[in-house]
Specification:
alpha/beta, 428 residues, 8-stranded mixed beta sheet, 16 helices
Length: 428
């Protein structure tokens, strides 16, 4: 049965968004009121806008200005000139988890000062106070800002249905260290093919830090490898871009997901591109477009529960206070001041890898996936990293499971030839 039997293909694309927003606004009157507030604060979308960057932000003082610089004044087109400010916008949703959460006035001042200094850029700001009983529901925060963008897109009176359907959304973090100056140009170029509905690139941590902190480098590489081996190679390890059409068709995040929300979204869009009746494309490439702030990884290794548990105390006040201090101070980390339990040794690597192993075994058990499949993924990771001497230790409970890595000479040898440059030949 055809969903919209009397409409053209171009009209269908817009109607997916219309149907989606109509359904969303009818579900919850409180959320409808909140979305109406966000839309009014963000102001109307410019007719020329082709790309909308959605950034939730809370307690990002000292970081948000750098993020804005990289998304605006540092962006260029393929001729090397400043990217036209009229063809993209940045929407910041300043969110407080509950009414008694203090305001981050320094962050707000940073945003407004930057907006005033570079008024040619479309930087829109909305503030929302939630009432989360425990930790913030991240998928809802992202959903609110993206839904508000979709509503604003549909409200554009003088824009064609085709252009409304091809609007690009990019949900992004506020903690950017650096961006490829051609990132936005590259994104616009890729989506100029009307069949493209999503684009995934590569994100990295700062190379100077990885060079001085080998255990972090190995564990970050392993974490991304495990994600893609388990969830599929379209899986993102950071923000990605997708069309307004794809967003509406898949219904955004799964409300049951408390973790890996964007991975779930990428899975849904990936599945959409496998509809044999349509020629939709999910573009994946290996260009390193984004360097992220490494605060959460560093904190988990040096002050927390290991990288596998870096979201374990998510949004606990004392934890987040310390985390944000790390976000501003990580550049002071050198090879000389890394503690012994964070050095790259067989013992330390075994501890960190074992924690990840228990996480994936738990996930597999919840999905009725054979544990042997998890073992195979880890064995593949070891083979690719030059680790040949290891033992899987299985216990009666998942907490007893571990992996003992006995020799890392092959890994150390590989890392001697590691190229830490992330600025490979950028191009469209």
């Amino acid at each position: 049965m055809q969903l919209f039997p009397h409409t053209s293909e171009k009209e269908k694309s817009r109607l997916f968004q219309e149907q989606y927003t109509t359904e969303q606004l009818a579900i919850d009157s409180e959320r409808k009121e909140r979305l109406t507030h966000i839309v009014s604060c963000l102001w109307p979308m410019k007719d020329e806008c082709k790309l909308s960057i959605c950034i939730p932000a809370y307690r990002e003082s000292g970081i948000i200005e750098n993020t804005l610089k990289h998304y605006t004044i540092n962006q260029i087109d393929n001729t090397g000139n400043k990217l036209d400010p009229n063809i993209f916008e940045i929407n910041i949703l300043v969110n407080k988890p509950n009414p008694n959460t203090p305001d981050d006035r320094e962050m707000l001042e940073e945003i407004y000062n930057f907006k005033s200094a570079y008024s040619e850029y479309q930087i829109n700001i909305a503030q929302v106070v939630y009432n989360f009983p425990k930790k913030p529901v991240i998928w809802l925060i992202f959903k609110d800002i993206a839904d508000a963008v979709i509503i604003r897109n549909l409200d554009r009176t003088w824009v064609s249905s085709k252009d409304k359907s091809s609007l690009i959304l990019r949900t992004a973090g506020a903690d950017v260290e650096s961006l490829n100056p051609l990132l936005l140009s590259r994104t616009l170029s890729i989506f100029s093919n009307s069949n493209v509905v999503a684009h995934r690139w590569e994100t990295r941590l700062p190379p100077e830090l990885l060079k001085s902190f080998p255990l972090l480098h190995v564990m970050q590489t392993l974490a991304v490898f495990l994600l893609r081996q388990y969830h599929g190679n379209q899986t993102i390890n950071g923000p990605f871009s997708y069309s307004a059409e794809a967003y509406a068709r898949v219904g955004w995040f799964n409300a049951k997901k408390s973790l890996w929300e964007e991975i779930d979204l990428s899975k849904k869009i990936w599945a959409l591109t496998h509809n044999i009746e349509e020629q939709l494309l999910f573009i994946k490439d290996l260009v390193k477009d984004v360097l992220n702030n490494p605060r959460r990884q560093i904190h988990s290794l040096i002050h927390g529960s290991g990288m596998a548990g870096r979201y374990q105390n998510f949004w606990q006040t004392s934890h987040e206070n310390h985390l944000r201090a790390v976000g501003n101070d990580w550049k002071n980390i050198t090879a000389e001041n890394i503690p012994d339990f964070c050095q790259l040794t067989s013992e330390n690597l075994s501890r960190e890898v074992s924690a990840y192993y228990r996480v994936y075994v738990k996930i597999a058990q919840s999905n009725n996936t054979p544990i042997e499949e998890i073992d195979i993924i880890f064995m593949k990771a070891f083979r690719l990293s030059g680790i040949t001497e290891y033992t899987f230790n299985k216990g009666s409970h998942n907490t007893d499971n571990s992996i003992e890595i006995k020799n890392i000479d092959g890994l150390i040898l590989q890392m001697k030839n590691q190229n830490f440059s992330w600025k490979k030949k950028f191009g469209l």
